[in-house]
Amino acid sequence: MDLSRRKFLKLGAVAGGSAVCNLARPAAAREMPDIDPDWYGMLNDSTRCIGCKACMVACKKENKLPPESTLGDAATFGAPLYDSPRELSEQTYTLIQLHRDEKTGAATFVKRQCMHCADAACQSACIVGALKKQKNGAVKYDAGMCMGCRYCMVACPFNVPQFEWHAALPSIRKCTLCSETRLEKGEATACASACPAGAITFGKRSELLKIARARIAAEPERYLDQVYGENEVGGTCVLYLTRKDVAFAGLGLQPFGYKPVSDLTESIQHRIFQYFIPPIAVYGVLGGIMFYNQNRKRKAGTEGGDDDY
Amino acid sequence: MTIKALPLRQKFFTPNVFLLLFFMGAGAVFAFFRFFYGFGSVTNLSKAYPFGLWIAFDVACGVALAAGGFTTAAIVEIFGRHKYHPLVRPAILTAFIGYFLVGLAVFFDLGKYYNIWHALIYWNGTSVLFEVAWCVMLYLTVLGIENLPNVVEQFKDNVHLPGRLARLNRPANWLLHRLDWFCGKTMAFFVIAGVVLSFGHQSSLGTMMLIAPYKLHELWYTPLSPLLFLTSAVSVGIPMVIFEGTLAAKFFGRRPETELLSGIAKYVPLFLGTYLLLRLGDLAYRGVLASAFDGSLQGNAFLLEFALFAVPYFLLKRRSIRRDPTLLFLCALSVILAVVLNRFNVFLIGMNMGPGWSYFPSVGEWGVTFAFLAFGVLLYKIGVNYLPILEAEHE
Ligand code: SF4
Ligand code: SF4
């Protein structure tokens, strides 16, 4: 008796386990994001950037952001002397970084900002939906909705969203694609308008892809035959071109896969809560076991049934 | 059920209580800076480590360590092992305190804490965090209800409010009788609901960091993570009960419940075994076992985590070890540390946000975490002192 019950329990555990395993297996069926041809975006041609940082200045002006100095802060110098951020921050939405190729030693300037992903990880992760893809392609942040949980920062594969670490009531800050201040008035982004070297092209994503392809076709010995952001993490609205001998990874643009990063979490969530059937089923099974045990106890008329499993 | 649970009614202000209050006071100072001068003034959090000790320990571990509540409730009420009934009330009380503190810790960790209620009205179904938040809220409510009978039992027909408030005695008593009736009728429903919510919640915490495939180390980035979080939480349920039971006996000068604790400990290897099987199977199936031995911080953290899980599994299989209060306690402690380290690994140590970034909790972060722990212990002490939680000692 003891043995058979033990066996039964073990079998039950295995069966239950495999049922949950099945739940946890990602559904392959999650669709790839639809990409709207009307989304706006930017094409950053790293082969054209001269590192003048005019785009950074334009961005700071547009968004009324203070300068950040690596020489010392206001406390040490009376005032920041010089805008020289090292990283994206709550005061720097876009940044020019210099990357040096290990082999050739060639220097490349690369612009950083929010990629305005097609299937944005930040949007998928945000608990209240404070980050949302807009019709014009911008991923917009709503400070009034945000709870400040910073899960979007964990989720974003490009580490874009920044938190105001020194504010009593902090918000998330990131590039807006000038959605409200300029796009709605039919103007291009501030950074693209400011670039003197034609390294930033503003336009519809579908058009930008065509331009990028045309540039590669016109100068195949100059460009690497790949547009970064066309497929990476499901596609982004900010696209990149690079020199033939410099891989995107050498520019700090990681070789991400083509699936959105939220692929796994969303399919697990979906499986576990599909029409609430799994939780209700677990509820039913547990209820049945409880009912059975209580009935048995009542019949036995004792506190019994406490034998070993 | 011949033995009744009774309030301890011991002297409250012992030196230990002052120690707890000291920790809470220190935490409050750090909290002041966090709330008025921003996270930067107390924490070591950065753009690369937006989640730190407060999320990893106060929330992720807090939830896992509250698992004593639902596992004990399931074993006793659902699977009918009524012998262990005396363990249910303390476990449910601890779970309630644990979840209450998790809620409080979340409040601390939210930049815009005043928007915490937004989780109720703005729903984003794709967010794992959304599901986590709802389970915390619902399960905390359920735990509150599960603790109601203790209050009812203590004060029913026994309300003696002082002075002018005495007028409220009758209505309060009427309310308690209603509650008593309500609890009697619906408790079964809430007990099962508590277990189902815990299942959902524990597993969702395992889903959380899967949003970052390029940041979380491959030893922990697995689609099986929700199931691993769930089974490890189930495994740590009974060890938590053993841990608390042993400490409570020591600090309140009661006889240890070795009989009961070593009895219920026999289920632990069953749960731990299931977990270890799944964990090893997953690592082997994904072919990443090698990276456990590459000598990196992550690899070593994994090995330590695994050892802390595996050693008590083998030890607790032996009856003689389960019957030895000290060894039993140490085994329980090992499982608890294993789960804590596992959550740390997933939320912090296994997260690589790129070169040049590192994180170690600041004094302020430790301070606040200790304050939470102290507050939890204090609440437990208040609970067992004034409510019928622990059963009278049987001779
Ligand atoms: S780059 Fe990051 S912040 Fe920007 S849309 Fe993509 S996931 Fe969101
Ligand atoms: S910090 Fe704000 S925007 Fe980011 S996930 Fe949390 S609620 Fe959403």
What does this structure look like?
The complex is a heterodimer of chains A (309) and B (395). Chain A has helices spanning 2-24, 54-62, 74-77, 121-125, 151-155, 190-194, 205-218, 263-272, 277-300, and strands spanning 40-45, 95-100, 107-112, 131-133, 139-141, 162-163, 172-173, 200-204, 238-241. Chain A is built from nine helices and nine strands. Chain B has 395 residues and is an all-alpha fold. Helices cover 68% and strands 0% of the residues of chain B. Chain B has helices at 15-37, 53-65, 67-78, 88-109, 118-121, 128-155, 169-208, 225-251, 258-264, 268-286, 297-315, 319-322, 325-349, 363-386. The two termini of chain B are 15 Å apart. The mean pLDDT of chain B is 88. The chains are: A alpha+beta (309), B mainly alpha (395). Chains A and B meet through helix 1, helix 4, helix 5, strand 6 and helix 8 of A and helix 1, helix 3, helix 6, helix 7 and helix 8 of B. One iron/sulfur cluster (SF4) binds at residues 125-128, 130-131, 146-152, 172 of chain A.
Following the backbone from N to C, one meets helices and strands of chain A in this order, namely HEHHEEHEEHEEHEHEHH
- Say how many strands of chain A there are: 9
Mean pLDDT over the residues of chain B: 88
Q: Kindly state the number of beta strands of chain B.
A: 0
Bound molecules: iron/sulfur cluster
Largest interface: A-B, 71 and 78 residues
The chain-level structural class of chain A is: alpha+beta
Shape, principal axes of CA atoms of chain A? globular
Strand line-up across the major sheet of chain A: 8-1-9
Order of helices and strands of chain B: HHHHHHHHHHHHHH
Biggest sheet record of chain B: none
Cα-based radius of gyration of chain A, to the nearest Å? 27 Å
What oligomeric state do the depicted chains represent? Answer: heterodimer
Ends apart, CA distance between termini of chain A: 10 Å
Number of helices of chain A: 9
Low-confidence residue ranges of chain A: 1-29, 303-309
Overall pLDDT confidence of chain A? 83
Give the % helix of chain B.
Answer: 55-70%
Low-confidence spans of chain B: none
**Percentage of β-strand residues of chain A:** 5-15%
